[in-house]
Amino acid sequence: MVNAAGYYAARVAEWFAPHGRPPLPLLMAVMSHQYPLVEPIAEIAARTAEHGQKLPMIRDPDVSYHLRQEKTGLNLGPYERTCPSEWTAGDMPDDFSFHLWRDDLDRLEDYIADAMERMPPLATAGVINGPIPQTPDGLPLIGPMPGGGAGGLRRQRLHLRHRADRRRGQGVGRLDDKWRDRVGLPERGPLPRRRLWLLPHQRAREGRRGLRPRIRDAFPARVLARGGGAPVSPLHDRLLEQGAVMGSYGGGERATWFAKPGDDTGFDATQTGAQNGPWHTWGAEEVAAMQTACGVLDLSGFARFDLSGPDAATWLGGGSPGACRAWAA
């Protein structure tokens, strides 16, 4: 059974509870997503008929939107920084198909004004406002259903949140198809499907974080802001004492860089593509240290196993330099 129910996926997952172990809450939020649609434009219709192809897509990472041809009109897709989450109090209706929310033009003012300078016909656009599922990092949730496995349903699977299907959907579909045909993981590592630690109010907050940076300029130091209560390594407190600035990686917290007393670790200072962030000096020092001495890296996030059975500790101990003990889950 593959759960591909989009923004209803969390409710569908709850239906499996009477038949096995209750599933963990899915790490996704339902966001209010708006996009203006323009009626057919004669010039676009004529160009499409003449050249047999659509206009190229336009992306503006500064204002944060994409503009593409929809039939013979235009579709303006903003990546809103202020999009609200919906149905966070368990008030999702049983049926929302073919329904929309009222438009909220104040949220779209900057996007429409900028796009109209490039495409004046957008002045005649109508606005669509409907639900869209979102994960904290924008990655799909695919693979075995959390909460299945031992004591639960073994053939539950997730296939959710491709984000932009024209870029990723086909590859994700192929990967999951091959994954289902095999025991274990596919030949190429799957997109992460972890990140199952958030409470409902955190899922909404992290969902907004995942939507906002979708097409912002990327750079090596940019990471998702950490979410409180994420899994941490046994070295977490010691790393913080050394000035570690944490980021969110695969649902857990890991050190992104190490600040010195007086360094500005705020969002505006660190989340910049310029090469003058407070982490730049630290990065240079790390490179120099690795060239002349050595470094130590916390890799405990790669050393988590979910094992069961009377010989689980013995098996795990065979590949560990330290002693392993068994405990009751």
Automatic annotation (TrEMBL):
GO terms for molecular function: methyltransferase activity; oxidoreductase activity. It holds the Pfam family GCV_T. The keyword Transferase applies. Residues 2-146 form the FAD dependent oxidoreductase domain. InterPro entries: FAD-dep_OxRdtase, FAD/NAD-bd_sf, GCVT_N, TrmE/GcvT-like. Keywords: Methyltransferase, Oxidoreductase, Transferase. It comes from Jannaschia rubra. The keyword Transmembrane does not apply. Residues 235-316 form the GCVT N-terminal domain. This is Glycine cleavage system T protein (Aminomethyltransferase). The lineage of its organism: Bacteria, Pseudomonadati, Pseudomonadota, Alphaproteobacteria, Rhodobacterales. GO terms for biological process: methylation.
